[in-house]
TrEMBL record:
Family annotation (PANTHER family): HTH-TYPE TRANSCRIPTIONAL REGULATOR ARGP (PTHR30579:SF2), TRANSCRIPTIONAL REGULATOR (PTHR30579)
Cross-referenced HAMAP family: HTH_type_ArgP
InterPro entries: ArgP, ArgP_gammaproteobact, LTTR, LysR_HTH_N, LysR_subst-bd, WH-like_DNA-bd_sf, WH_DNA-bd_sf
Name of this chain's protein: HTH-type transcriptional regulator ArgP
């Protein structure tokens, strides 16, 4: 039989990115958390963590974390059916990975009513849409929003729609870098703004215009900061249309190549055995996300 105190220690160390913060969350000493991890490793006969900064789960550790995520959700279903098992009546906490642009645009509107009606607290992990699925694979989250349609083993995926991005810059930037007009070659020579090292959206956009290879760029791992840098004339960038309708209407940002957006399909991934709460959230997102995202094949 599993000792869930040991599994909870493993989950806390990974979710809190270290032993010290895990100890604070669990109300234990750091030494006690370390001893629980060692006991778990002794029972399974192999390491469950790679002792790095932050600690990362091994293959067996990921399997155990996946199990913990699903057990937590199934326990909630059982508490609904047998109220006497609910010891504290605390709201359920869902740990979800999603991309920063979704968080900055459509996500809150899509899930606000659901969280209020179901007494759900969100523990959000922000990842680029191209790599968010790694959090599920590692067993760190119960669900994620990402750009990959293929679910990990034991999970399902649902197409939500697509985020439409437009290549934008400030009027001053355009006057400085494109005095004779915007061309793909000139675009590749001008400074760009990229969200982070995993963000390949600008690369794909330029490749679609026939421009291959690297280009100079700023790195800005903040969705709001990305827009501010673009407004400030530091570079051009691909920005969600949902996020800058006001700036476009006021002329603070200008589209570089008219009517040449790029759409990024988004998928909702959740554990197949994640219980009724995840199933209900999935059904809710299927309805609400479609109200703001564009159809993936538009």
């Amino acid at each position: 039989m599993f000792d869930y105190k040991l599994l909870s220690a493993l989950a806390a160390v990974v979710e809190q990115a270290g032993f010290e913060r895990a100890a604070q969350v669990l109300g234990l000493s750091q030494s006690a958390v370390s001893q629980r991890i060692k006991l778990l490793e002794a029972r399974v006969g192999q390491p469950v963590l790679v002792r790095a900064t932050p600690p990362t789960p091994t293959e067996i550790g990921r399997r155990l974390l996946n199990h913990v995520q699903q057990v937590r959700l199934l326990e909630r279903d059982l508490q609904d059916q047998v109220p006497a098992l609910d010891e504290g009546g605390l709201p359920e906490r869902l740990r979800i990975a999603l991309n920063a642009d979704s968080l900055a645009t459509w996500w809150a509107q899509a899930v606000g009513e659901f969280c209020a009606n179901h007494r759900v607290l969100l523990d959000l992990v922000v990842e680029d849409q191209d790599v968010g699925l790694k959090r599920m694979r590692a067993g760190e989250v119960a669900a994620c929003v990402c750009a990959s349609d293929r679910p990990v083993s034991g999970a399902r995926s649902l197409a939500l729609g697509a985020m439409r991005y437009r290549a934008l810059a400030s009027p001053e930037f355009i006057a400085r870098h494109f005095p004779t007009g915007v061309t793909p070659a000139a675009l590749a020579r001008a400074p760009a703004i990229v969200f982070g090292p995993d963000d390949l959206l600008q690369h794909r956009y330029l490749a679609a215009l026939g421009v291959e290879g690297g280009f100079i760029h700023h790195l800005c791992p903040s969705s709001e900061g990305f827009v501010r840098l673009t407004e400030g004339g530091l570079g051009w960038g691909l920005v969600p249309e949902l996020q800058v309708r006001g700036e476009l209407a006021r002329g603070e940002l200008v589209e570089l190549l008219a009517q040449q957006p790029i759409d990024v399909p988004l998928y909702w991934h959740h554990w197949r055995n994640g219980g009724e709460l995840l199933n209900e959230l999935t059904a809710h997102l299927a309805r609400t996300a479609a109200q703001t995202l564009v159809p993936a094949d538009a």
